[in-house]
Amino acid sequence: MSDKQVRMLMVLTSLLWSGAFITGKFSVQEFPPFALTFFRFLFALPFIFTILYLKEPKNLFPHGKQWPALLLLGFIGTFCYHVLFFTSLNYTTAINSSLIGAINPMLTTLLAAMFFGEKLTPLRIVGIFLSFSGVFLFITNGDLQLISQFQVNHGDFLMLIGVLCFSVYSLLSRRFMKQYELTPFMITAYTFLICVVISGPFVLWENPSTYLSATTARGWLSILYMSVFASVLGYLFQAIAIQRIGAPRTAVFINLVPIFTIIQSITILGESITLIKIVCAAIVIIGVYFATRPESKIYSMKAPTQFN
User: Fold this and answer.
1) CA 260, CA 27: separation in Å to the nearest integer?
2) Looking at residue 237, what is its pLDDT?
3) Long-range pairs for 244-248: beta carbons < 8 A, 24 or more residues apart
4) What's this model's pTM, rounded to 2 decimal places?
5) In which element (H, E) is residue 17 found?
6) How far, in Å, CA of 266 to CA of 291, rounded?
7) Looking at the predicted structure, is the pLDDT value of residue 293 above 60?
8) What is the pLDDT of residue 23?
């Protein structure tokens, strides 16, 4: 798979994840955080394990040191992130959570440079800055009054911790794939399973009898969408991209999620679009391109040994 195909795969992943924000608005009204996390990944298990069995039957059962790596990834990147994300939605605004989520590419790149020896090129730094700036202006619509009213609450801190968990998960995924011979299919399947096992007792603690009788078909269908499209396909495509182009370049595509979310809000919910949002979307796309494109041929000719 070429870098161009991987980038297109991550664009599709961003589209799938953006749909989770729309369906998440429905499901969070009917289910508490642990239940949402539990059911989302419980429904995903038959799909992802079928894919694992068909694609990699020899890797159906992990062995030896693969288990601790999978347990850590499942706890940090699947269980912790989603519980923190769903919980934060009860306390913070959509604007705050979207802006905090947009920090993920910068945080992942910074952690990769500090702890994993990733090199930062000037073009990549410019791309990350452009994409974040575009997301910031896109969400705030360039409204100075809205920007000045930005307030931080404990829901924002929960979301920030969640973003940190997801960044660490992304970076560790690539290292563990190399170190323990894990594949994207194995990581996706077993982190989902581990998340379900860990979240199970917390679901009982939330007392399902208090909310299950009031749930609707819309709520369950919303969870099903998040299970199949945002979880199975989204996490699988992301793991493939991390393996191919690395966590920092993969993370930049998260900045496309708010763009696709607004587009779906316009087409599905009938919300309006403004000229500044179109301009900001273009800035985000340019920034993502700069931050994820391979080094130029000219630069490679000057320093060929750095990219072998």
Assistant:
1) 19
2) 93
3) 244/1, 244/3, 244/6, 245/3, 245/6, 245/7, 245/292, 246/112, 246/118, 246/174, 247/108, 247/112, 247/167, 247/170, 247/171, 247/173, 247/174, 248/105, 248/108, 248/109, 248/112, 248/118, 248/124
4) 0.80
5) helix 3-27
6) 28
7) yes
8) 83
DSSP 166-199: HHHHHHHHHHHHHHS---HHHHHHHHHHHHHHHH
More confident call, 277 vs 300: 277
Q: Exposure pattern of 236-272 as b/e (b: 16+ CB <10 Å)?
A: bbbbbbbbbbbbbbbbbbbbbbbbbbbbbbeeeeeee
- The radius of gyration of the chain from alpha carbons, rounded to an integer in Å, stands at 19
Residues sharing a CB contact under 8 Å with residue 303, sequence separation 6 or more, in sequence order: none
Q: Is the pLDDT of residue 166 over 70?
A: yes
Q: How far is CA 147 from CA 55, 96, 151, in A?
A: 48, 10, 9
pLDDT, tens digit, 9 for 90 and up, residues 107-128: 888 888 888 877 777 887 888 7
Report pLDDT for 32: 93
Nearest to 85 by CA among 34, 13, 133, 139: 34
DSSP 8-state assignment for residue 80: I
What is the dihedral sign for C-alpha 286, 287, 292, 297?
A: positive
The whole-angstrom separation of Cα 220 and Cα 253 is: 28
